[in-house]
Amino acid sequence: xxxxxxxxxxxxxxxxxxxxxxxxxxxxxxxxxxxxxxxxxxxxxxxxxxxxxxxxxxxxxxxxxxxxxxxxxxxxxxxxxxxxxxxxxxxxxxxxxxxxxxxxxxxxxxxxxxxxxxxxxxxxxxxxxxxxxxxxxxxxxxxxxxxxxxxxxxxxxxxxxxxxxxxxxxx
Length: 171
Prior knowledge:
- The structure is a single chain.
- By secondary structure, the protein is mainly alpha-helical.
- It is about 60% helix and about 5% strand.
- The chain has helices at about 10-30, 50-70, 85-105, 110, 130-155, 165-170, and strands at about 115-120, 125-130.
- The chain has a two-stranded antiparallel ribbon with strand order 1-2.
- The relative contact order is 0.19.
- The mean pLDDT is about 95.
């Protein structure tokens, strides 16, 4: 079986949708854990599952601001914006949908545009819009892996959020 090669625009749109799907599975799985497990402190940088998922959300907001050419206002990467899972999921869905809508408006030319920004700590950086979206999705995947690791400490089965599983479901 042969398939048509994807353009970078197609890939960006697929990745934005993958992100929403993977987050849905993760949040559903965290919601299904025994009471207190999502907020139980563990030996990890962001302390809890909720803390780690808040970190992902905060980083999404930072990069959204960079893509929109505005200041994000955050001074740290470990701020818990939403201590309740339901509130965090509602906020995460909004930003995920923003990335899906944003990706649907992009072209090869706009994805190639370079965005200048400042990291937290004021170090200057520059990335293409396409690379920013790739980073946002990759960053979230990395930290969902941290959450998945915490499932083993419960113990509970973590969700399978691999890209090939998502892609299989699209066919």
